[in-house]
Amino acid sequence: MLSSISIKSLYALALAEGEGVGTAYEYYAKRLALGRWLKQVGRPVRLLVAGLPQKYGSSLDFLLLAEELGAAVVVVDERPSALDKLHSSLQAAQAAGWLTAVSPQLLHTANLADLGELDGSYDLSISAEVLQRLPAADRPRYVARLWQLGTAVALFAPNEDNPAHTNISGLNGLHLTEIQSLFPPPHPPAPSPHSPAPSPHSGYIDMPPFPPGIIRSEEQRAQATSGKLEGLAMWGLGYYARAERWLPTAVRRRQSHIVYALATHH
Fold first, then answer.
1. pLDDT of 213 strictly over 90
2. What is the pLDDT of residues 244-256, one digit of tens each?
3. Distances (CA, A) of 53 to 123, 127, 148, 176, 204
4. β pairing state of 72-77 and 46-50
5. 230 against 101, higher pLDDT
6. 105, containing H or E segment
7. Strands ordered across the beta sheet of 152-158
8. 7-264: which CATH architecture?
């Protein structure tokens, strides 16, 4: 369902957000997980980006997802500065020839856990680097609200079991069991229209073979878009990313940057 887009191509979106190769690798890793899942879920017509990242990037990869699928997209956040950053990043990407066929509706909400300003329904609600910035007590309410709004939910958060990543990034994290617990089996056992799937597809992704926190100059970033050696390295990173899922769970638990859960109900 999703086209094959290289890490080098995704790097253009990362640059538009002021980020680097690490963000491009993250986007590629998330696309691999989403691509496999969406083949089972089906093509969404309405997509909700339920909050923007706390620190890194503006989720332009989700706008790319909407553009590829031909889905209408709404982006909601409680921080006007984050919505402004997304608007600027999108303009930069479009100036470089990317995301020219997507027109997201940007919406401010007073409370991200409640999303009271939203109405209607969405085929897919998605967020990355959002859950960890919500108070723990608000996370179940946030996920329950996403279930009220639609039939499929995809959540990505920093991996608490990788302190090297969370310490350097300055982000809080979630254990895989914590994100899984937000998708409990139906109770009572009889299914209801808004009961989540008993077993969400979940796991660890985004384990780049370079240390977190690398800072590159603007010249080095620009060279990465055209240099042959950089292009070859990113080509190799793509194969490495595809091999992540075959590594032992214990390794992925310690080294992955992201935990995720994908689930649907009908």
1. no
2. 999 999 999 999 9
3. 21, 8, 22, 19, 18
4. parallel
5. 101
6. strand 105-108
7. 105-108, 72-77, 46-50, 124-128, 152-158, 258-264, 201-205
8. 3-Layer(aba) Sandwich (3.40)
Rg of the chain on CA atoms, in Å = 18
**How far is the C-alpha of 24 from the C-alpha of 22, rounded, in Å?**
5
Structure-token pair, residue 144: 């329950």
Query: Is the predicted pLDDT of residue 188 greater than 50, yes or no?
Result: no
Which amino acid is present at 140? P
First-residue to last-residue Cα distance in the chain: 21
How far is 109 from 208, CA to CA, in rounded Å? 34
Q: Where are the domains of the chain?
A: 7-264
φ and ψ at 72, to 5 degrees? -70, 145
Tokens of 54: 């706390």
Instruction: State pLDDT tens for residues 5-46.
Output: 999 999 999 999 999 889 999 999 999 999 999 998 889 999
The amino acid at 205: I
| Amino acid letter, 152 | A
pTM of the model: 0.89
Sign of CA dihedral 132, 93, 46, 117: positive
For the chain, the maximum distance between any two Cα atoms, rounded to a whole number of angstroms, is 59
Residue with tokens 């209801």: 192
